[in-house]
Amino acid sequence: MHKNILITGANGMLARHLSEQLEKSHSIRFLTRRVTAKNEYLWDVKNKYIDPEALKNVHIVIHLAGASIADKRWTKKRKDLISSSRVAGSLLILNALKAQGIILDKFISASATGFYGTVNTDEVFNEESEKGTDFLSAVCNEWENAAQMFFKSRVAQSITIIRIGIILAKNEGALKKISQPIKLGIGAGIGSGKQYMPWIHIKDLSKVFEYTIKNNLNGVYNAVAPQHINNIDLTNRIGSVLNRKIFLPNIPKFVMKVLFGKMSSILIYGSRVSSKKLTDLGFTFEFNTVKEALDNLFIKK
Q1: pLDDT per residue over 10-48, tens digit each?
Q2: To bridge 224 with a disulfide, which of 69, 165, 267, 278 should be the other Cys (CB 3.0-4.6 Å)?
Q3: What does the alpha-carbon distance between residue 129 and residue 273 come to, in Å, rounded to a whole number?
């Protein structure tokens, strides 16, 4: 069924790919800080403003906006922005919908596998696992609690929360940052190299969002590929597809901490995360393995 879908984070990688996936069946509009197209509408989280036209006749809101966790060192100011940009954005939309008396069919909020904490452990986390105890898990928990308010306040008939792993996309995002030093012949594992890196191909991630809409899935879902891979194995596989040998020793933890401060935790720690809940409901990944994903992203067909 055709829906009017409003997406936040218009300039982000995921919003662009997701809109391409959804516009085949739905009408897409965006909230953005700088309007450049007819289907874009102004919002300003800091000044608590949303163009009221953005919400007229909207059926679904997909909230992706949030300051990047990996672009700058985690100063107190940066940590406050990482948290507030997600939570305040959710609450701004919530209050605007209330003011206009609009009830959504569905509110979909991004979250992250960081909900489970940046830790190295043998545990395989699923949607029922408890949240972690560090900064990122606290941010994800607050973000998800804000999403829950849409249902509790009866502003949305249902909500879906999608905990996203590392997104693999061509020439952008995490994969670009990881592959650049490898292309230059200076790639190396990080820390022990044994930390797991829950990942997903951008195409599969867009399909996860579409699947939750098409099948009206409620609740929390991990959006990660079925294959678990650790840092050194991923580094070696990227090197292999790029025809670059990984010969340098792993970068020690203390070096990462000196370079990146507290933000280094997202690089030197990581655990396995399960997507069984999604696949049990019938979702099929196009890219089940890292090899399939990297071949698709790097090898010219």
Answers
A1: 888 999 999 999 999 999 999 999 999 999 999 999 999
A2: 165
A3: 10
The angle subtended at Cα 120 by Cα 114 and Cα 122, nearest 5°, is: 110
Residue 285: Cβ within 10 Å count: 21
Measured over the CA atoms of residue 249, residue 254, residue 131 and residue 110, the dihedral's sign is: negative
CA atoms of 164 and 248, how far apart (whole Å):
30
Count CA within 13 A, CB hemisphere, residue 203: 11
pLDDT tens readout for residues 75-85 = 999 999 999 99
Query: Residue 44: beta bridge partners?
Result: 49
- Cβ neighbours of 243 (radius 10 Å): 7
Q: How far is CA 199 from CA 139, 202, 266, 275, in A?
A: 20, 9, 13, 11
In whole angstroms, give the CA distance from residue 244 to residue 228.
Answer: 23
Q: Which of 233, 221, 238 is nearest to 279 (CA)?
A: 221
Residues 6 or more apart whose Cβ sits within 8 Å of residue 185: 244
Q: How confident is the model over 132-155, as pLDDT tens digits?
A: 999 999 999 999 999 999 999 999
H or E segment and range at residue 223: strand 219-223
Q: Which of 112, 84, 212 is nearest to 159 (CA)?
A: 212
Which amino acid would we find at residue 8?
T
